[in-house]
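Lab notebook, bench 4. Still working through the backlog of constructs that have no structural model yet. Next entry is a single chain of 368 residues. Request: give me the structure tokens for it.
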Amino acid sequence: MGENAIIRFDQVTKQYDQDEPVLKAVSFEIERGKFYTLLGPSGCGKTTILRLIAGFIEPSQGSIYLNDVKINKVPPNERQVNTVFQDYALFPHLNVYENVAFGLRIKKMKNDVISEKVSEALRLVNLEGYEKRQITEMSGGQRQRVAIARAIVNEPEVLLLDEPLSALDLKLRTEMQYVLRELQQRLGITFIFVTHDQEEALAMSDEIFVMNQGVIQQSGTPNDIYDEPINRFVADFVGESNIVPAVMIEDNLVEFNGRRFECVDQGLRPNENVEIVIRPEDLEITSLEQGKLRVKVDTQLFRGVHYEISCYDESGQEWLVHSTKRAEPGSMIGLQFEPEAIHVMRFGETEEEFDKRLESYEVSGHVT
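Model written out:
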């Protein structure tokens, strides 16, 4: 276990009856004091990981460690872990104060200690003065803050958050993202956050685990995940992407759209079939003469800060462009991009193989 790791999964599998495993020999470490996000579509296994950490279920195979102690059989109430649920799980017959104080009363703390801890927890989530308010009188965002206060008042080492913002409207979600991120940084508690919203994950996290079909596809910082996706699933799930079949001619040279282009990727086999990713914001609209690609505009949508433009090249390949420039449907335009904008993905590459290949061209001075 790493020096700063607080949680470790070692080849953990979870299977119900004879069904396909929902988690397949997953191994990872969670470092103390960071904000982690488990990101992926419904049914990928992310909530299962949370339930295993919390102790609500046990692994079918493998081992789970908290502070270097195996906790497979340790009951939930004996783990320094608290959970904030999607539906808040508040007690409607208790007011705000009693909801937050509930866990402390179970521990039979003195009333003056409970009062001090509850007041501090409510202050941290900006609910001072709401102690006597009934839960039924509060908005969704306020209820979520109460649920968070109830979780942090117990001073857990790890706070688990199971899609806690999914029931909120867009404005409240954004507000709560700031609240959670600021709270985590202030308290220094390890947060493990579950979501299927990639924008939420990118905005809030120190580290992201992208999951699909019971497997962690890729882990890394938001920049790592967005700029260096390991495979088509990650590239397509995290942000919008242009994913195009290509051939890696040699180091720093890739062929697609019938032409060869400079890139920064290395470590692939000569003439290997690959896929390339270019993010829509990395494509610049220019004249036909200056463009590396010649495309015909199909649709143009205004998204507030940019235009989202769909266009097609001569081969029928669709290209998505995000630009502050307009491009009228039916017109021909050129698309320009830098070598650093091209990210090459190898078919079937593991995360370990990808990391080694990435290191090879970071060491040589090429960092994308």
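Notes after review: The chain has nine helices and 20 strands. The two ends are 30 Å apart (CA to CA). Flag for follow-up if needed.
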